[in-house]
Amino acid sequence: xxxxxxxxxxxxxxxxxxxxxxxxxxxxxxxxxxxxxxxxxxxxxxxxxxxxxxxxxxxxxxxxxxxxxxxxxxxxxxxxxxxxxxxxxxxxxxxxxxxxxxxxxxxxxxxxxxxxxxxxxxxxxxxxxxxxxxxxxxxxxxxxxxxxxxxxxxxxxxxxxxxxxxxxxxxxxxxxxxxxxxxxxxxxxxxxxxxxxxxxxxxxxxxxxxxxxxxxxxxxxxxxxxxxxxxxxxxxxxxxxxxxxxxxxxxxxxxxxxxxxxxxxxxxxxxxxxxxxxxxxxxxxxxxxxxxxxxxxxxxxxxxxxxxxxxxxxxxxxxxxxxxxxxxxxxxxxxxxxxxxxxxxxxxxxxxxxxxxxxxxxxxxxxxxxxxxxxxxxxxxxxxxxxxxxx
Length: 391
Ligand SMILES: C[S@@+](CC[C@H](N)C(=O)[O-])C[C@H]1O[C@@H](n2cnc3c(N)ncnc32)[C@H](O)[C@@H]1O
Hints:
By secondary structure, the chain is α/β, with parallel strands linked by helices.
């Protein structure tokens, strides 16, 4: 189907014809979450990018180790609820629960963790057994952890530019030849200007960036969900001074189709995924406003997973590969190691940021962490990418 005829694009165009240019956040909402949006199709959703839970079960097993530690730090409550937001196809939820089921078999007091854990997975476009976010209302505030992986970067964002040291918003309208194009105008809300005003004096003329205003609502949801406990937020992004930096002249908006990175959001509307790097300073601000405190350091995923014991996990994978070398060929063995390593590769997933916040709960100390019981059989399952058959 030619690009210009995508149904999502037609919705965008008719909205512009009726009301004039729309914000980029509105455009993203239609293109990703509208009736003909990218995430509306269970075929396309998730096929164009590879997230950590899709790469290897080590990610879920190590997160299970983190949750076990959180439960211990909270004094081992009889019920420990984990609420995952933006759970997609439920891969992380599955891997965490598989790992926790293995703790049940360990004959020490940590086996009680598997009795205490209740895992709730929600998504705005639920797939499989993941529940619709609309059902969050039914959940009473919990003691435990709210977790998300690559949720905030998928929120619709506003786009701005700097002209004569002033912040203008980039709306989506029609260009000279009638194609979709950015059209500049005054900001639709002062919140956009407030987020970036500290940096406008150092940003070059024509700089383009994004502001994610949806995280305020997310923080209110998190505050309503969590009576006491932890918020674990993993995503692409930076603190604000690194995000709004002259070196990032063209901003952080990225489009993905069939694993290929592009930068033109107006192509294949509704057929490509779009993401915007997270402003982790804003994440702190919105969570602080609802009573959460951040653990001092904003870690890279690489450092976080090493704190959680990925080094030991890697050793066990190597051992398992040696013991199964007659069953698995060399290519499969290499893929196993590659997908595990990709979780900590700083050119990709390893460079993600991990923010840890807490409210009414002591700080978690990962230094003395003992996660080995959750490793079990450490190799990937058919649903992980390393298990995709090769030719
Ligand atoms: C990039 S995917 C990540 C999926 C999964 N967390 C993973 O790591 O594989 C982003 C997910 O966030 C969901 N999402 C976006 N906005 C949401 C919202 N406001 N509430 C819940 N889920 C949302 C999307 O439907 C999508 O499944």
